[in-house]
Amino acid sequence: MRDFGYSQRGRAVNEAQAEIHAAFKEVVNRNDQSDPRTKRWLKAIEAFNAAYSRVYPQDLRLVEQGTLPASELDTSDILDFLEADPVFFRSGYMKETLLSALKKRSLERREIERLQTIILNIVQNADRREFRRYCRTAATIPDEHFKEELQALQHSGDSDVRRRASWVLAAIQGAAH
What we know:
It is a single chain. By secondary structure, the chain is mostly helical. The protein contains 9 helices and no strands. The longest helix has 21 residues, at 6-26.
């Protein structure tokens, strides 16, 4: 799996966000810019904005800013981001946008397999806001092997994995009717 630095840049955003929260806890008067505690908080905000501005490559940054529709991105770029699965401020919204764009595409077999692998990984590892969008997207790419793998995950020892696998299968079955 290629990460393209998403995890590292996402980590920088998370660290900067944590510093904002830590600094703000010490602020007495956020309007007193001569207070060192307020200065620390304001610097933390600047550092967060700088880290966030670097988190996406150019095309994804344009999508995030609303100046480029996700439908114009290359499928491989979307899959790269979803595969890296970075978790940082607002990354769930980006994943939802990208999944919506993917859902509307006619994918090649290797892209379908790659997306199925991504979804299977998400089922095994994550409870996040974008999970419903993964379910809806999965409904557009079902095949017997994919369904069998999801059914196997329904027998996992982890109740969260079982639940997520069931939700993906329900989305696939719902789309079939």
